[in-house]
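Researcher: Next sequence.
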Amino acid sequence: MDRGSDSAPHVAPRSLPQRARQAAAGLRLDGSLAFVALAMLGICLLYTFAYPLLGHYPGLSLTYDWVVLDTDDCDPARDWCRQNQLQVLPGDRLLRIGDLTYAAYTNDRALVPFGAYRAGDPVPVILERDGQTVQINWQMPGTSGQVWNIVLFNLLFMLPFWLAGTVVMLFLRPRDARWGLLVIFNYLIATWLAAGFTSNTHLAGSAYVVRMAGWLMIPVFVHLHLHVPNPLPRLRTQISLTPFYLIPVILAVCELWAWPPPRAYIVGDALAVLASLALIIYRLLNPMSPSDRVAARLMLAGVALAFGPGLILWVIPILIDVNSPAVNVVAFATLVLPVLPLFYTYAAYKHRLGTLEFRANRLLSTYSFISLYGTAFLFIFSLLGRWLRLSTNALLAYLVFSAIFVIAALPLRQRFVRLVDRLAYGTAHDPDDLIRAFANRIPQALTPEDLVQLLVREVMPSLLIRQSALVAIPRDGPPAQSNVNVELVYAENVAVPGQWSLSTLDDVLADAGRYRFREATESVQVLGWVRLAVTLAIGERRRGIWLLGERHPDDFYPQKDIDLLTTLGNQVGMALHTASLLSESRRFAQDLKALHSVSSVVASSLQPQEVYKRTVETLAQVFGYSFVSIYRVEGERLHLQYQVGYDPQHLIQELPLTTGVMARAVRSGQPQFVQDVSLDHDFQRESPTLVSEIAVPVRSADQVLGVINVESAAPGQLTTNDLDLLLILANQLAIAITNAGLFDTVTRQLQQLELLREISLHMASSLDLKQVLDTIAAAAMTLLRPGNIHIFLYDQTQDRFTFGHALWQDGRRTPVTTTLRPHGLSYQVVRSAAPVVVDHADHHPLYADWADRATVPQSIAGVPLMRAGRALGVFTTAFFDRQTIASQDQQLLTMLADQAAVAVDNAQLHATALRRVREFESLRQVELALASNLNLHQLLQTIVAQVIALVDAQGAGLYIYLPELDQLELRVSQQPASWPGDFSGTRLQRHEGLAGAVLASNQIIMTNDYHANFSSTPFADVPVSSVLGVPLTWGSEFLGVLTIFNTDTGRAFNLDDQRVVSLLSGQVAVAIVNARLYEDARLRAEKLAVAYAELKQLDRLKDEFVQTVSHELRTPLTFVCGYVDLLLEDVMGTLNPQQREALSIVSDRAAATVRLVNDIISMQQAEMEPRQPQPVDLADLVQTCGESARMTALSHGIEMGVMVAPNLPPVLGDADRLGEVLDNLLANAIKFSPNGGIIRVTAAPALARLGDDDAQAGIKVTIQDQGIGIAADQQTRIWERFYQVDSTKTRRFGGTGLGLAIAKRIVVAHGGVVGVESQLGAGSSFWFIVPAYQPAG
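Model: Next structure:
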């Protein structure tokens, strides 16, 4: 049977073409079988619908002996009903129908009674009733409902057999003899029943078909019971089946010739039934398998249910002298016949129905119950009707009786279902009852032992299960290997291997929850006894498998039991999980206790080596490990710290991080569990007996500190539980190692800090470089204990070491040479400005050329003394007792080197600072000397003397550049007395000598061999060794050259001398420029003094001239104006018009001249400072001046308005002068305003920027007119003296052109501003602002 209907045996996979060919053959076979099924259905339907399709129903039912069973009910209103009514009664025997006699009918089975008549035809009928012959005319009725009742009954009888045969043929496997017999048996009965309802009419040869099918059923029925449920080999070999088939086939063929007798086949069928019953009883009485026994009981129950109702409703009433049952009662009794093929098919294929088995079971039980219950109802109903003599109108009694039966049906059905279950399964348990019984008890099993006791002693017996086992599978699923180790919880009456293949596990899991019948498991070598596998799962994770095997009585698990066991399996899985958790909790508690003891031992020391030792020994003692070791990560290698159990001959002391299980754990940072070391290519064997290994990295944060390694010589001794424990212990060890390291680090750091503090104090209290470096070297010796320490100072400009200090382990302080190997470690450190650490120095290239190989250290480290990115020296430590230098020691060396660099830098800075102080003091003295003397020659002499003293030179000279000659002239020099002559006044050409070279290049030139570089000069015979020349410049102007020199060859100039002289050259250049400027200023001051005296004389003469002119001009002009006015007033006689006109011109000219003189005087006074300023109420002054000018304005037809803001502050100034400003501006506005014009005068507070100060409070006075206006290009010039817009206007309006100039000078003298805003033709607006008076305090 394939997996489509149930589990199939495990077979080897076939190739794709083989499977394709087999599928094609299966499809062809299935198509043929489907055609056979349809053909059989067509035959059965042909006879089922024979009356409406092939003949006419006569309106009565006859037996094969032509005895009337019943006549159809009809409507008396119809003719044929009235005609036939009461002519034929049940029990009458027909002797002749038309021309057909009964004798002819029995001899020729092709003759059809009533076949020649149609509806409405009269049929002469001769019948026998109560021993008398009666002749009647029977009228053929039309088609009535009785025809379709016959069709319906026929379908009800035939279809179950056809369906049973078709289901077996098309859907059940295997297709063996049992399968074929069931198919033939069901199809024969279906055909026999379909033709039997019309066989007495002989329609379509139905008589032949019924008899032939009856004969063929005899051997098939007997043969079927030989094979169902399983073949009986002993009887099958002892009994020859050929006569059983040959004789009935011959008799069936003889039926074509009306031989043998009509009812002979019925006797054969009865004998076949009896033989079949005998076979069933034989099976039950003889030893057989439980499943065959259950199947035999089911078949016997099927026979009883199929034929029992007929016996009850038909035979028994006759025996107890009850009226013969009606036709419909007999028909009901035959309705249970389809139970027979259903029971047989269920008995034979119960194990192969899979999930359909439970439905088939319930179908059988329900159908059987309805059949039996209906039979009992009809039987009891008939008896009660007979005994109680109930009439057909006692409807109420029938209804009450029926209601009682219906109510009683519900509990009786449950009992009947249990009876069928007992027949089918050997037990009548209720799944709900079992679930309720064990639902609360299974989860309470807190240990695997309690759970096993409950399952074995109660659950399995309740379900009649003889074989069972419970296994736990790995939590994390099947491993990558080909086998799976399972944990056996219990096994009852079976043997379960501890290791399964993956294929076995896959097969079991694939069939989980499905019944595995015996044939499907016989080919399985492992777990062949398993009939059902139930997966125990918690959520999505499988925890185990419940294996169920042989079961009483028939080794079968129906679907309802599978569902029950699946439900119980969930509870068992939960209980197993709970028990596992409890067991794990207890084991975990024990492990925690052991871990606590280990942790206590590990945490009891702060020395790393002691921690390693105690950890390994405790692991061996507490957990019983035979081989334990701890390795520590140092660089790229693992170093053994402590071990227990290993043979020293095979022990690995040091291991690279590239090979080995431990190295893999370090590289990956993950634990490594190798159950079989022979399969691991990385395994490094330390003992020939080792079989498994666990390597757990000891991690602190992201750093792997080391590895705990545990190995075993016994298979399976190390488990995942050990791995978990070691992981926890590794964390504890990491903490302990970290704490020990931190303690050691803190201790070292405290010692380092103390030494650094001492170094810092020493550095702060002493600037002696040698003493400070010795302190640092002593600190390094204390902390690191090297063989020796060297400190060298490095001159980067000269690429050489200038100082050396050494300290040896025995306390010796020896002088060292600064001449080191050019390609040695010290030069490499300072040139690369990076530390250099040499491990295993005796094999290092840096020491390949070392002369004395015995003195080569094992390891050496050199650290540069770095300051501001510059290497000041090197700090080296040499070790003779170890081959490597740890990283923390390197960090300490770097820290000490930094301290040494600070000390060196401080010492150098101190020396530099002292030198700078001396230099700055000298420069200050030079600056004071230069500032105290502005005489150029004396200044130059001072410069030469100061620069000699500043740089400790032996001589100096100062050249002045003569631009007109492009030459240098030595103005001042200071030279040794031994020199021949005085070189002052010597002139040098460009490029001549060192000074000429400085002139040509405008750069500092320094030489320590003068005559080698400058030979052809006036100083060729002078004993000079080193010379430094510095250009003196002021901006882009070249002033001269300052030279200093030494005559001794041992005294050379350096960069510091160059820097100092360069600084001094700037001051010298400034002093020279200042001296020259002073000389120029002195000459200009003398000239300015003479010019100032002349200007003062001219100013005095001007004042005298103005006073003389004003006096000499105003006096005669006053008399002239007076006499002219008298003449014009006719005091001295009447004047004719010509005289008057002439005198008017004279009067105007004289008045203009007087105004001009007054304006000139006012102009002179305006340029003078105001008199003693006083607070002036400008608002009152504006009002007064405005009223004074109002009359003049009115006389010219001009309107004037004055608006003064209230509460204006006073201004500080001269009231008369300010009044003069107002008068001039008002007079100017009146003069230029046309008749009818308007002048507006306003005074208001204002903010204005007066002078260079910020904006301040003031008072703004504005005079606005409607005059002719002023062009924009002339608005700035109107404030000039004697300026008028043009002569035309002057002639028209008159004036001197001084009024606005006087007004501006008065306002400016008061600290104010004045301005105008005007447009031609639109008038002008003159304004001025003077600051408000703000009293002090």
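Model: Confidence is low (pLDDT under 50) at residues 1-20, 519-523, 1287-1292. The longest strand covers residues 1238-1249.
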